[in-house]
Design goal:
Rossmann fold; 429 residues; eleven-stranded mixed sheet; 17 strands; 3 domains; elongated; 26% strand; alpha/beta
Chain lengths: 429, 429
């Protein structure tokens, strides 16, 4: 074992950072044995220096994160601040001053992963970020290492615990969206401003990262089609149950039709109860991976929280620490496939559409004709009368999003169609 | 990209080996891009040289595996022969002649992992074996890398597809063991001699490997308590259903009571239907991992088969190939914790015991007294009369295996106890 310690700076000391510091202290001997050298907490950059931080030497605490990463004697910088700036500048500066970086920053990786990887490579350092996607669940490493000899075709996952908690609550109690959100907020599963979660921004960042790694190409956050789950209703869950389905907010990354492009999207979708993702409860995350040789794999676990995220950060810390000692670097960005990202219109899937229609003869024929004209084949139709109006539930065969969009646009113009109550994709069949 | 190819020798060209060779050929460009150098199949050692092997140049085929691994120009040797010898000698010789090794050999790793790791280290080479446990499911790498900064407390898994297929069939159809085994054999899920699977030898080898990696200690095959599943009956499944459980053959590796030792065991057990492992169907595998910081993780996928196993082998091939180019080695054996393995008697769990007893007053009191005398606390008792005899189903609270064993021994001596119909552990609660 090397006796000179690896010097680690911690940027951010909130829920995750404080847990990283705690485990680094309490499990110091184990970490040293696994890395091959002791690790030393060399500095902790925080915004509020006066806050009492149990177990952290106040002499290590600084508000000047930039000065910390410029020290030049750091081996590893752990970035758990989140957000774009100052995280981006700090990571870049860390590389310039010879440190490797472990980050949990999904937003930054999704937006600027390529530039950060390039900076790491330029300086011969590592950039690891297992904690950026699905918390403690090993996912980045399995995708970029374990499956490196395979061809991944699809990644289908529940990667946001807040929205899964809300949807699970709606499913099991019949609650509406607002009621379930209120409970999630009260229990600390949702933030005061839940926008990033419920509008799918968080999941979209993870989808961009996963798609890039899975398909060895570059997928930017803007490439990801994103729909939130705020408009999912109790009625949608009732419809899903009739289909033998439940509703999940899914991140879906796929090779498109001929394999020459990829797609990435986040939206609520019906998924059969028999699918392993359907039984992922509460704030848990799970990601389904389909590949040529391995077939179907699933990775399941807590997707967030201080300790689970710290577990992922520290796993990376051990790997990066070993690399520092041996003078090697781990796998960098693998984007050689350079596949274009197809627009949402080219995504092919099935749809569940609820229409409010006039309750008179010929309406079904009229509606069916519109589907046919747009080349969207109908699987099943269910018609229900209610108070002079009727509802029509159409489930389609596989069709492109563009064709479905055109169908719905035409349907909306029909006099006999009073409204489109909901459109939901059906996945995982 | 390096232009000089990495030379790979393949030992064994059966179901797995031929799939490895096929993917190496058809995905050569992808593998080269991911490794940073082309890979060249430099030789294939087989037992039957005359067999036609599609896509493999006959000039590469040899029956002299020893001469192949002694060539001295090999970068990587892929061992998919299985069994102890000649695999062990060939791997050792490969290290001596400068090659790194990728193996899928669970029996050998479980028996001689320490010596093989030592040989790899002595020669500065890699020994990777993701394919040895749970086929395509990334498990070795997550345990030894992703969770390297965490403390794993328990590994609980279905790691044998054949027995899971049989037990699932018994569960869903009510079939007996022999009938379900016959179907597994007919469908190719069980081998003509199913001993290694149904008697738990295969699962025990995997348990030894998993326990060693999870707890950073050395666990040999002989340290693993092993019970097969040939005596599980349709009546056991009926009892399990009454408990809200199903029956799985589980590999269980745990830290023992005070954390100063570990245990590893393979046996059939009841597991609640609400546990994620309960819904693992057919020949699939799944492994549940519990750790201090990450909490509960699950890894799920196909546990065997040519293509899935090849996926794991090729993932290792890419990692080892990258290491060859950079001159680094990946993580070797981590056994620094050097924890003793406690005997089965010290394992603490719950038990479901079915007794055939005389149908007369006082029997229950007598039986309950025996449990009390051995310090085994009873959770529930259910008594059912049938034809002058009665059956007594006792479910205990947590107790040591030794205490339970003593209890059963005393029970067998009671005149009023006609027989012990079954004893089944209850796990995953």
């Amino acid at each position: 074992m090397r006796t000179r310690p690896l010097k680690v700076a911690l940027l951010g000391c909130g829920v995750v950072g404080s847990e990283v510091a705690r485990i680094m202290t309490t499990h110091a001997d184990d970490l040293a044995a696994r890395i091959g050298a002791p690790v030393e907490l060399a500095g902790v950059a925080v915004r509020r220096p006066d806050k009492v931080r149990e177990g952290i030497d106040p002499a290590l605490v600084t508000t000047d994160a930039t000065a910390l990463v410029k020290r030049g004697d750091l081996d590893i910088v752990v970035e758990v601040i989140g957000g774009i700036e100052p995280a981006r500048a700090l990571i870049t500066t860390a590389f310039e001053h010879g440190a490797s970086v472990v980050s949990a920053n999904k937003a930054l990786l999704a937006q600027d992963g390529a530039a950060l990887h390039a900076a790491a490579e330029e300086h011969g350092r590592d950039l690891y970020y297992e904690a950026a996607v699905a918390g403690a669940i090993p996912l980045i490493r399995p995708l970029r290492e374990s499956l490196a000899g395979d061809k991944v075709n699809r990644v289908l996952g529940i990667v946001n615990g807040t929205t899964n908690f809300i949807l699970d609550k709606m499913d099991t109690t019949g609650a509406g969206y607002q009621e379930a959100l209120d409970e999630a907020t009260a229990l600390g599963y949702a933030e005061a401003d839940p926008t990033a979660d419920v509008e799918g921004f968080d999941a979209a960042a993870k989808a961009a990262i996963l798609a890039g790694i899975a398909f060895h190409t570059r997928v930017r956050l803007d490439d990801v089609h994103r729909e939130g789950m705020t408009e999912v209703t109790a009625a949608d869950f009732a419809s899903a149950k009739e289909m033998g389905c439940t509703i999940k907010l899914l991140a879906i990354c796929e090779r498109a039709g001929d394999g020459a492009s990829v797609t990435a999207r986040v939206h609520p979708a019906m998924i059969p109860l028999s699918h392993p993702l359907a039984s992922v409860r509460g704030a848990y995350n799970a990601v389904f991976v389909e590949s040529d040789a391995a077939g179907q794999l699933m990775f399941y676990g807590p997707g967030a929280g201080g300790a689970p995220t710290a577990s992922a950060v520290l796993g990376d810390l051990v790997a990066v620490g070993r690399n520092r000692i041996s003078g090697a670097t781990g796998p960098g960005e693998s984007a050689y496939a350079a596949l274009p990202v197809s627009p949402m219109g080219e995504v092919v899937t099935r749809y569940h559409i609820s229409l409010d229609v006039a309750d008179k003869p010929g309406v079904l024929a009229q509606v069916a004709t519109v589907f046919a004209e747009h080349g969207v084949s109908i699987d099943t139709v269910r018609q229900q009368g209610k108070d002079g109006e009727a509802s029509l539930v159409v489930v389609t065969h596989r069709a492109s999003d563009a064709a479905l969009g055109g169908t719905v646009e035409t349907l909306r113009k029909l006099d006999t169609v009073r409204g489109v109550a909901s459109i939901m994709r059906v996945e995982g069949e």
